[in-house]
Amino acid sequence: MTQFNELGLAAPILKALEGEGYTTPTPIQAQAIPAAIAGSDILGIAQTGTGKTAAFALPILHRLATKRTPTPRKGCRALILSPTRELASQIGQSFKTYGRHLGLTVGIVFGGIPHGPQIRTLAKGVDILIATPGRLLDHIADRKVQLSGTEILVLDEADQMLDAGFLRPIQRIISNLSARRQSLLFSATMPKEIAHLADNLLREPVKVSVTPTATTVDRIAQRIIFIEAKKKKALLVELFADEAMSHTLVFTRTKRGADRVARHLTACGIDTAAIHGNKSQRQREIALNAFREAKIRVLVATDIAARGIDVDGVSHVVNYEMPEVPEAYVHRIGRTARAGASGSAISLCDNEERDLLRSIERLIRQTIPTVDRRNDSTLTAEAKGAGRESRPRTNPHKSQRAAGANKAPGKTSRSYGEGKRRRPERKAEHAPDQHQRNDEAGGDQQKIAQAKPDFRAAPRKQPRPKARRPKPQDGTARPARKPNRNRTARPVSA
Ligand code: AMP
Fold this sequence. Notes:
Blueprint: H1 11-20, H2 27-37, E1 42-45, H3 52-66, E2 76-81, H4 85-98, E3 105-109, H5 116-124, E4 126-131, H6 133-141, E5 152-155, H7 158-163, H8 167-174, E6 182-187, H9 192-201, E7 206-209, E8 220-226, H10 232-239, E9 248-252, H11 255-267, E10 272-275, H12 281-292, E11 298-302, H13 303-306, E12 316-319, H14 326-333, E13 343-349, H15 354-364, E14 370-372, H16 396-406, H17 409-412, H18 426-430, H19 434-441, H20 445-451, E15 492-493
Parallel strand pairs: 1-6, 1-7, 2-4, 2-5, 3-4, 5-6, 8-13, 8-14, 9-11, 9-12, 10-11, 12-13
Antiparallel strand pairs: 3-15
Helix pairs in contact: 2-3, 3-4, 6-8, 14-15
Bound molecules: adenosine monophosphate.
Adenosine monophosphate binds at residues 22, 24-26, 29, 48-54, 310, 339.
């Protein structure tokens, strides 16, 4: 079996890997690292948990360390785009860990926190920049970042980017990069939009793959329980009588639903926290750390907030509601059975969710074993109307567009003082639309949607902001914003 020291990586990187106790590259690393060091573009099909972060981080660190050049002012040498804040932080941490003996700088840029410190970080330039698309586009529009000197681009979790509505923003970001770059694209699944993006982005890519497209992890024991919607909470509590469910991730469709389920479990004496896009970054980190350190038994999450959650030892994943997008099922259940462990996935499916179940089974080409608990008198039904989340009846991608088209921008826009003002809740609660997804993913997309009418299908006439800056070259118009100087994030030496 190949060892790390056979892959041609620089000695300081091998030393850091040794410090981490890594000896053997994972399959995706063994395939991707030599090709990336040779300068090839890479198309990687891999889920989280396969070691894909190191598969791109190690060759990037190697290249930056062995071909030293000054960091471009306001720019970076390597840009990594991530769909979520959590994943961006984790990728940043991995670069710092693996590059700790190299003295390279790492900057992380995402929404939900003030712009000022990020702008100061970017002004000097960093070797490696990890960013969520929304906030990066903000900085591009403000001319605080200049990406033409970027040598390497990584798109991580490309299919999640698509789900979060980031396809257009990514295309806009890429249009700012030089064509002479090396590009790496990683995705757990390969829907046709991503295949198309890969065709445009990559030049003669080396294809590396560790799981066939959309194949569910084999080690996971899957089960569907048919149940009435109004009895789901009672059933969920009953499931937790099983002590084997020691470290469980519960997925809900909406943020409000996540809060309701978390409150209910807590009231029933089950230690639970919720994580979703309406929680502050700090709350998200506290909840995630409590779950990671097993201080709580259950973490209830919405899809997007859960992306990039890298927690080992998740014993069970429960789909409290079936995911709207079949690929999300693969992602959700992939949170268990990480790093060679086994795991269980239990999905509560009501009558209205049967079609969603069929789509999932078609995608994974498996029939999932079922248990029928309908008409079970031992389970108490919730009072009428309590906790029932309405579900969009249409294709979620279509409903995203429709939701965007139907919203008056003035009503959905948020303050430019990031995260200080609250946006209207109701619409996003009742449909996991573009607005909600982007809010959860990075917090900045509403602004983008407002600033770039072409982002949505049929925008209405927009009210003009009182003060406008001159339109930047990329066509993004944005009102002036006061920089916030409260934050202290700086580039950190890797
Ligand atoms: P990722 O798929 O990048 O999210 O990585 C999943 C987990 O595997 C992370 O906790 C990594 O620290 C760990 N990991 C990555 N590569 C290796 C390796 N070669 N040996 C042992 N652990 C690894």
